[in-house]
């Protein structure tokens, strides 16, 4: 919490340079805590705020040496700024039952933003959390750039507007109460949804909901609560959807009961992105039990049935002539050769007689961001309009592209955003929604499309293969230069900033547009968090034939792993302890604090048996900093564990992770995101990748793609949420991955005495029997009653 | 079409559906019981984990025709009724569900019905065998959580076991 006595004076705000006037303020931000919002007329009280009233981020703070771009302006500033030209309202409604409701123009995919948003509203309104209901807004095209859930930006960009809307509601309620109770606003106390006058007379928000609306539309000035007065924000709080989740009542797309929307699946080609030419046995498949429709569409052959089981039978029975996809015949090795051929020469290093070079060349294989809830969508396309339901992080561009596909005006396509069972970047795209719309139009019937796991794993989007080369120049005990060059298969950013204008810009011919976008994202997210003299980081992308996207934390995991392994090498060269080396070259006090915290709490340097070791790494992104210390066991008794249909291998036995995310709205949710990120980091380092063979990925399910499981997860995990000097929140959803991945890689190198150069470390051996490609999906087993436990 | 009769969450049901349709689809697509989730359809992810006659099983791997009229299926929706009302917690739920709430386990929540059903069966099995839950027992759980909630799952199972 800030200790500043006068929060109204920008000069006293942490992170803002003394004497420097903030720039880029909109008229709505009177100062850091006073804003203009609106009371809107309606059946009950509706309070609104402009979603773009956040003022410009402070520039120039805490940078003693030449700053890298993300330090002064990062991806989150871009996402926030992209929203600036639009003017659009978000609304908090007070209902007659005394509850408040709010439609969040973002996607909840497990990251906890409905909870943190409800907490902000409850805080500002002085209402119990269980009386605030946050739902997801459908596509609102008027929001333009401002309905994209990505870059861990939700809390950063909505923190102030959400509070302003709630504060406006509170003020309108107080004003209505003042009239009713015959007092002044200043004399009243609002608490727990009840407003009380000095004499004890009181009135509830519910009783005031209609009266407060009666004054009609007007602009009002409100003062937000000081962070020092927060009672709920900053307190560890359980998720608002937890009861629904543990009782089975939480609905995901395929759980929705949309009349007539029968189960639908697609039969896909034996090579990646192959396309159907003709169906040889359509009539036969149409006559199978339960089948209602069979239709050839652009991505394959769709079947619709009474049950998904019958869809699986039909997909397996279909006899289809296919045209090969664009990577037919290719494999990991051929793609890696192409990536290597695209590598640029590394920048020249300073050349002095005493200079020594430390270098590394790392390969990162394809990885999948398949969530537990496979790609799915419900589509009801009629001749005069369409309705779509899906988990969508960019619903506006989805609506626009679906309208194009259907040949309809965008306003004829209603796109509803459904909570999704995980995203990991995948739901930035809308592959299933677009496909479901096409199928529903072709069949003339509503469809509930669900991708089979085999398709979700093999055909769904993922993290592209890439190489990362690092070179550093050492003179004595100084690092004079640090160069890092990432070369990878293209990351698809064709969702743009969530609407069709920038999406179209990313879709310019020959990938020029997407590359420009990728370069921008790379430049805005990557930095080397050490004082290493001349730092150069470059990105080259090549090959746009794969289904990729911004997998959780985008470029950072690979870049940071390569960087931190070389940092350990530099430390060794200078005969320094890895932790002390990181301290010495640290220039950011927040990073130093998280580093020291994990070193102490995680007992850095304690004696450990041969074959086990610690590894330590740091990361800075999303306006936050993190450090991770892991312990790994690579002894044969551990790596030799036999578990059916599984990869065991080295086990991370202990993790200590510290994060300073700025103001942590919900430390409990933040801790959960870090715990998830730790398991992602372990998977990326040790077990999970995709193998491309003969034009298709082999991994067809969870017994092939080895995401971290209970036998891999560390029995001892400690996440420390740091008290922060920052008064604004940073991003949380992705922040746990990079440092964890890097720390595991460093620990593995120290335990085995060999620095790994490809990730995951087990990619070289295939640990499963690949499932067939024709038919494209496996049949369900029948022996489940013999396997009860 | 064949008639399939069995008991689900305490109620006897009869459904007209082919023998070979897996129970998961009968529950989800025909009976509207959507707590058991689809995550693979081949008995590897365990998202569909439910109970049959008190033991954990995976309905994606059971043709509905194999069920008898007296087989009792319990899905997450029916779990609270498996204990006496006096054993239920603050939310009127099964002790394991209450532990899940106290530990705030769920992230996206998709895998969690299956995780809870597997956890209850594991605790029952371990206590049938006269033991208490160990790290080694927790390591045997096959349910995937792609959000990586494993740390809290482990805590919640130990907590839930103490309450059961
Ligand atoms: S859906 Fe049944 S185990 Fe995966
Ligand atoms: S909570 Fe999302 S898959 Fe487990």
From TrEMBL, chain A:
InterPro entries: Ald_Oxase/Xan_DH_a/b, AldOxase/xan_DH_MoCoBD1, AldOxase/xan_DH_MoCoBD2, AldOxase/xan_DH_Mopterin-bd_sf, N-heterocyclic_Hydroxylase, OxRdtase_Mopterin-bd_su_IorB, TAT_signal
Single GO term (MF): oxidoreductase activity
Transmembrane regions listed in the UniProt entry: none
Aldehyde oxidase/xanthine dehydrogenase a/b hammerhead domain residues: 247-326
Comp. bias regions, Basic and acidic residues: 1-23
Coiled coil: none
Region span, Disordered: 1-28, 762-789
Name this polypeptide is given: Isoquinoline 1-oxidoreductase
Organism per entry: Nocardioides alpinus
UniProtKB/TrEMBL annotation, chain B:
Domain named 2Fe-2S ferredoxin-type: residues: 2-79
Gene3D superfamilies, alphabetized: 3.10.20.30, [2Fe-2S]-binding domain
GO molecular function per UniProt: 2 iron, 2 sulfur cluster binding; metal ion binding; oxidoreductase activity, acting on the aldehyde or oxo group of donors
Cited InterPro entries: 2Fe-2S-bd (IPR002888), 2Fe-2S-bd_dom_sf (IPR036884), 2Fe-2S_ferredoxin-like_sf (IPR036010), 2Fe-2S_ferredoxin-type (IPR001041), Aldehyde_Oxdr_Iron-Sulfur (IPR052914), Beta-grasp_dom_sf (IPR012675)
Coiled-coil ranges per UniProt: none
Pfam families: Fer2, Fer2_2
PANTHER family tied to this protein: OXIDOREDUCTASE WITH IRON-SULFUR SUBUNIT, OXIDOREDUCTASE, IRON-SULPHUR BINDING SUBUNIT-RELATED-RELATED
Entry protein name: (2Fe-2S)-binding protein
Species of provenance: Nocardioides alpinus
Organismal lineage: Bacteria, Bacillati, Actinomycetota, Actinomycetes, Propionibacteriales
């Amino acid at each position: 919490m800030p200790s500043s006595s006068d929060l109204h004076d920008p000069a006293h705000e942490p992170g803002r340079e003394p004497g420097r006037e903030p720039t880029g303020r909109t008229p709505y931000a009177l100062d850091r805590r006073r804003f203009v919002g609106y009371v809107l007329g309606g059946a009950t009280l509706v309070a609104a705020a402009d979603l773009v009233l956040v003022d410009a981020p402070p520039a120039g703070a805490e940078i003693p040496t030449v700053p890298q771009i993300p330090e002064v302006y990062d991806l989150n500033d871009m996402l926030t700024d992209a929203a600036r030209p639009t003017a659009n309202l978000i609304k908090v409604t007070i209902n007659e039952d005394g509850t408040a409701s709010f439609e969040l123009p973002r996607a909840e995919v497990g990251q906890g933003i409905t909870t943190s948003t409800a907490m902000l509203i409850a805080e500002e309104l002085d209402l119990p959390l269980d009386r605030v209901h946050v739902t997801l807004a459908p596509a609102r095209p008027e929001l333009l750039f401002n309905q994209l859930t990505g870059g861990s930006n939700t809390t950063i960009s909505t923190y102030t507007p959400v509070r302003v809307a709630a504060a406006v509601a509170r003020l309108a309620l107080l004003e209505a109460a003042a009239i009713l109770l015959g007092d002044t606003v200043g004399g009243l106390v609002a608490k727990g949804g009840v407003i009380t006058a000095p004499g004890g007379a009181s009135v509830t928000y519910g009783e005031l909901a209609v009266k407060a609306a009666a004054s009609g539309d007007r602009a009002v000035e409100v003062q937000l609560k000081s962070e020092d007065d927060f009672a709920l924000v900053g307190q560890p709080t359980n998720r608002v959807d937890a009861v629904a989740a543990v009782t089975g009542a939480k609905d995901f797309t395929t759980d929705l009961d949309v009349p007539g929307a029968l189960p639908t699946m697609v039969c896909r080609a034996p090579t990646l992105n192959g396309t159907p030419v003709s169906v040889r046995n359509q009539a036969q498949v149409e006559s199978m039990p339960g089948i209602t429709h069979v239709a050839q569409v652009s991505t394959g052959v769709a079947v619709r049935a009474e049950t998904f089981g019958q869809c699986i039978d039909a997909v397996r029975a279909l006899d289809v002539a296919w045209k090969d996809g664009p990577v037919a015949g290719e494999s990991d090795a051929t793609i890696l050769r192409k990536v290597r051929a695209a590598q640029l020469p590394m920048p020249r290093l300073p050349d002095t007689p005493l200079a020594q070079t430390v270098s590394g060349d790392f390969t990162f294989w394809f990885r999948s961001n398949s969530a537990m809830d496979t790609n799915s969508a419900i589509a009801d396309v009629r001749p005069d309009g369409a309705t779509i339901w899906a988990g969508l992080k960019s619903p506006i561009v989805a609506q626009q592209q679906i309208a194009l596909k259907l040949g309809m005006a965008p306003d004829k396509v209603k796109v509803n955003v459904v909570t999704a069972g995980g995203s990991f970047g995948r739901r930035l795209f809308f592959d299933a929604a677009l496909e479901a719309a096409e199928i529903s139009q072709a069949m003339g019937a509503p469809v509930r499309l669900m991708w089979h796991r085999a398709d979700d794993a093999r055909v769904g989007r993922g993290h592209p293969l890439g190489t990362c080369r690092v070179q550093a120049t050492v003179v004595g005990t100084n690092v004079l230069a640090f160069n890092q060059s990432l070369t990878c298969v293209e990351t698809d950013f064709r969702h743009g900033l969530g609407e069709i204008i920038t999406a179209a810009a990313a879709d310019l011919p020959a990938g020029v547009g997407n590359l420009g976008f990728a370069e921008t994202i790379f430049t805005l997210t990557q930095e080397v968090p050490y004082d290493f003299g001349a730092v150069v980081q470059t990105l080259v992308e090549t090959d746009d034939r794969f289904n990729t996207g911004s997998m959780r934390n985008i470029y950072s995991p690979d870049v940071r792993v390569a960087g931190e392994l070389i940092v350990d090498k530099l430390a060794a060269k200078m005969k320094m302890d890895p932790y002390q080396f990181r301290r010495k070259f640290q220039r950011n006090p927040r990073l130093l604090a998280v580093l020291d915290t994990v070193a102490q709490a995680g007992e850095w340097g304690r004696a450990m048996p041969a074959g086990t070791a610690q590894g330590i790494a740091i990361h800075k992104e999303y306006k936050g900093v993190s450090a991770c210390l892991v312990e790994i066991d690579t002894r044969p008794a551990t790596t030799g564990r036999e578990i059916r249909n599984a990869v065991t291998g080295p086990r991370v036995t202990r993790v200590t992770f510290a994060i300073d995310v700025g103001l942590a709205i919900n430390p409990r949710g933040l801790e959960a995101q870090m715990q998830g990120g730790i398991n992602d980091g372990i998977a990326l380092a040790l077990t999970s990748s995709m193998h491309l063979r003969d034009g298709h990925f082999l991994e067809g399910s969870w017994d092939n793609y080895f995401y971290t499981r209970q036998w891999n997860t560390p029995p001892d995990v400690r996440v420390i949420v740091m008290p922060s000097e920052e008064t604004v929140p940073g991003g949380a959803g992705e922040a746990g991955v990079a440092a964890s991945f890097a720390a595991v890689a460093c620990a593995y190198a120290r335990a085995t005495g060999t620095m790994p150069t490809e990730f995951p470390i087990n990619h070289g051996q295939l640990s499963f029997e690949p499932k067939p490609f024709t038919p494209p999906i496996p049949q369900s087993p029948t022996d489940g009653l013999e396997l009860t436990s | 079409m064949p008639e399939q009769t069995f008991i689900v969450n305490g109620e006897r049901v009869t459904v007209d559906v082919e023998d070979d349709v897996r129970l998961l689809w009968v529950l989800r697509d025909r009976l509207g019981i959507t707590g058991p989730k689809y995550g693979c359809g081949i008995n590897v992810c365990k998202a569909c984990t439910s109970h049959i006659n008190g033991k954990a099983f995976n309905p994606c791997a059971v043709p509905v025709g194999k069920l008898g009229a007296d087989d009792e299926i319990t899905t997450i929706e029916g779990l609270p009724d498996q204990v006496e009302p006096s054993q239920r917690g603050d939310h009127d739920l099964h002790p394991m569900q209450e532990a899940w709430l106290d530990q705030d386990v769920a992230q996206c929540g998709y895998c969690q019905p299956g995780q809870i059903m597997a956890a209850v069966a594991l605790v029952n099995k371990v206590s049938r065998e006269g033991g208490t839950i160990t790290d080694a027992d927790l390591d045997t759980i096959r349910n995937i959580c792609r959000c990586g909630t494993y740390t809290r799952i482990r805590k919640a199972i130990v907590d839930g076991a103490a309450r059961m």
